[in-house]
Fold this protein.
Amino acid sequence: MRDAFVRALLGEMAKDERIILITGDLGFGVLQPVWDQFPDRIIDAGIAEQSMVGLAAGLASTGRIVLVYSIGNFPTLRPLEQIRNDCAYPGANVKIVCVGGGFVYGSLGMSHHATEDMAIMRALPGVTCFAPGDPAEAEAATRAVIRTEGTCYLRLGRGNEPRIHEYPVTDWYPPAPLTIRRGTDIVLMSTGGILTQAAEAARILEERGISAEVVSFPCFKPMDKDAVRRLTERFSLMVTVEEHNVTGGFGSAVCEITAELGNGCRIFRVGLKDRYTAVVGNQQYLREVYGMDAESIADRAEALIREKRADT
Amino acid sequence: MENYEALVHQGFKGGRPDTGNAEVLAWLIRRNALEMSRISRGSHIGSVFSVAEIIAVLYTGILHVNPKDPKMPGRDRLILSKGHAGSAVYAALAETGFFPVEELKNHYANGSILSGHVSHKGIPGVEVSTGSLGHGLSIGAGMALGARMNGEDWRTWVVLGDGECDEGSVWEAALQAAHFGLDRLCAVVDYNHMQSLFTVEKTLRLEPFEDKWKDFGWNTESVDGHNVHALRAAFERAQANAGSGKPSIVLAHTVKGKGVSFMENNILWHYRTPQGEEYEAALKELEAHRP
């Protein structure tokens, strides 16, 4: 997704000279093409995230579209108040870009695990939030954050994720979700790079005779309430999947909508169960430890279906 | 309320000719702030009184702004980073014609545009909302950088508090502004040597303060922050530093609560609002020194 982001960014920078990229002293290698092609429009702000975001807000006030790039929690939690007061409140054209949503930096430890960022960012009024699920969605989401007026959050995965979408994502109008696979028994709703696990879970379920629909939400704020409503009309069982704390994140956002609809859907939220990670391991290992890998998602979905059948 | 109405009817209308005089404007800032604090029961009058001359000098010939066209392209930008002294900027804007002086009486009021800390929403002439300390210098650096990238020659002014300089983000911005060579960025510190509880010296020592900024790569100077002539000269030298490749900072030595004897250097007036006899006494002192 990192490379997809840079590819899309370069395309947009070539078309729109207002676009500036500020990095918090990260992106070794990854951002090199930007340094090469637009040396006057990329700034290293140093390891100073708070001031970096303030700087971005000031720059944006002079007519620029400013992307702020860093990893993990560094571009969100560290300068949170600058995002709130200096960007979101005045509606500044600042786009916060995080590489490494969830457990991407697995073995580096909990400081590098972005597992509350979605809840916190979506709590800020006026911030449009994106978490693409694969490189194709990352390219589309990069274009979307640049073209969306005001402050945005773009939560990317890592590099070299497998592609889920066979073709580039075009004709996409955020916040609309993207259907990855059709199904009839249960719907797996996913946001961010864990889409690979949701898609694989659907394949496992198929082997078990269960038809699971997979829907990716590359935009998690605002939520497409109509799309969620339509899903509740087709499915009474839902599983939300996020590489993030279940408190306040994507699953919570789905629950907020469905609870207000009041049509009795049962929802299970796959995610980190309100805890910090203390286990050492790579991304996939941690997904398995915390019950967020494809097998665990499939097991959970199957259990929900069994419980429902037992009830009826 | 009666006193405020009387004040307005004495002729303190926005845009009157002698608001071009910094001493007059500084006095009007204090006079308005006294009323605003009395009516609203809002705090921070001590900080407003310490920054009065700084704001007054900026709005009398230093800032290139136009009350008839607050969003004028090419205007200078002012950020009051110590947002709790917002009534000083509100009063200066009103008295120089950005909005009616009568509006000042609604400071803090339900439904008013004038919040306790300075806000840009709905207030002509305010560029940035502040209130949480340590934000303004970074935003100002971004504005100065943006102006340079756009090939424009307007300046960005940021007024900071001394206690605010406890914030790490101020020093992040200090590094960045110097590193990027933002020589059309001018900062002013209202150095009243007092914070919320104790003196700066007792709380978190800043001295040698000017040396710190110098070491960070800034043009620096220290002046008497209540002497409008000294301030103007310092601000003009800061303006003349465009081309030096370095941002400029003026450390303006001030007195918290300046202008009312019992408020001066008294931390109580970071919080207390003048009512009854205290208000009358403060009014009498201010009126005695009316320029």
Notes: Chain B has one domain: 2-288. Residues 2-288 of chain B form a domain with the Rossmann fold fold (CATH 3.40.50.970). Residues 8-14 of chain B have pLDDT under 50 and may be disordered. The beta strands of chain B are 77-80, 156-161, 185-191, 219-224, 248-253.
